[in-house]
Write a structure and sequence with these properties.
Blueprint (H helix, E strand, L loop, with lengths): L7 E3 L2 E3 L3 E5 L7 H7 L17 H9 L7 E7 L5 E10 L4 E8 L9 H17 L3 E7 L3 H9 L3 E12 L2 E11 H5 L4
Parallel strand pairs: 6-7
Antiparallel strand pairs: 1-2, 2-3, 3-4, 4-5, 5-6, 7-9, 8-9
The chain binds coenzyme A.
């Protein structure tokens, strides 16, 4: 279990030690970013791999968050500000829950712990600023780094959709993880 590290919210940014998150704006769309979304290998554990992404589709996706309680953040490395990935949190106000997902596109940032720290910042923001009572997330059973991140942050495996996904001819279980605010608060800090 990860102890709660630096967490600062200022000017719309959520700042940690090695990374910070900020609301994703059209200015952040770059050819590199569109390339990540169209990278079938990188996106192999995401349904996004089935779509063709363009600047216009990215603009539409950003716009879909306008006036919604949901969040779409760009993820940046603190040392140089480089855009390295994204996080989305779909907030359901009626249920007071959020569904969180993450992507680290930058090759040099993957495997450095940036994703794990960003996940922790998003959880803290959702529980303490948005005030949701539960955060859930889904992943393919074969996505080992994603499972590690969720376990590290104390998320509990709640559901297994047996052979739900088809990937390169293989049947893969879909996993659903969740954590309540009370569980998150009770972790060592
Ligand atoms: C999932 C993803 C965000 C993880 O990013 P990352 O940069 O590997 O994450 P981290 O560096 O924070 O590592 C997370 C954990 O996975 C482990 N890990 C990373 N790569 C691994 C690998 N190939 N095999 C086993 N474990 C691995 C790390 O050691 C770490 O575990 P630890 O905390 O116990 O040390 C990234 O791979 C990604 O964006 N993938 C494409 C999009 C995607 O699949 N998103 C999730 C859809 S549900």
């Amino acid at each position: 279990v990860i102890s709660k590290l630096k967490f600062e919210v200022a000017n719309g940014e959520i700042r940690g030690t090695g990374v910070f998150l900020k609301p994703f704006t059209v200015e952040t769309i770059s050819d590199e970013y569109i390339g990540w979304l169209n990278n079938k290998s990188l996106m192999r554990f995401s349904e996004q791999r089935l779509k063709e992404h363009t600047r216009e589709s990215c603009v539409q996706y950003i716009k879909s968050f306008d006036g919604s309680p949901s969040k779409f953040w760009s993820l940046h490395r603190s040392s140089d500000g480089k855009h390295i990935g994204t996080l989305s949190a779909y907030v359901n106000q009626r249920l007071n829950t959020a569904d969180l997902s993450i992507m680290v596109g930058d090759d040099t940032a993957r495997g450095t712990g940036a994703a794990s720290e960003a996940w922790g910042l998003a959880l803290q923001y959702l529980f303490t600023v948005v005030g949701v009572r539960k955060v859930v997330a889904g992943t393919y059973d074969t996505n080992v780094p994603m499972k590690r991140i969720m376990e590290r942050h104390g998320m509990v495996l709640e559901g297994r959709l047996r052979k739900q996904h088809l990937l390169e001819g293989q049947e893969i279980d879909g996993l659903l993880f969740g954590i309540f605010k009370s569980e998150w608060e009770n972790q060592s800090s």
